[in-house]
Design a protein that fits this description.
By secondary structure, the protein is of the alpha+beta class. The protein is built from three helices and three strands.
Length: 88
């Protein structure tokens, strides 16, 4: 299951553009608490090649995808960072 809804779900209806490529990576930090473990941080990095939008709009749409993601919502209280880069 992906860690965030595909950014492409937000791009097509939001700006009438079709992404040519979007890649997302997640780095998860887990800490030991007593006898168990918990996720205490998620660092997301997404890069996409999307014709006809600028980098600011791409970052806005990536942030919307992160906010609407069911996993992000389930991990409320966990630090989740996002870096979004529009690439050529």
């Amino acid at each position: 299951m992906p860690l965030m809804q595909p950014v492409s779900q937000w791009l097509s209806p939001a700006c009438w553009c079709q992404p040519q490529r979007i890649e997302t990576e997640a780095a998860v930090t887990i800490e030991k608490i007593g006898e168990g473990f918990r996720i205490n941080r998620l660092d997301l990095s997404t890069a996409g090649h999307v014709p006809d939008i600028d980098a600011t709009r791409f970052r806005e749409l990536a942030k919307q995808a992160k906010t609407g993601c069911p996993v992000s919502q389930a991990l409320t209280g966990t630090t989740i960072s996002l870096t979004a880069e529009l690439v050529e």
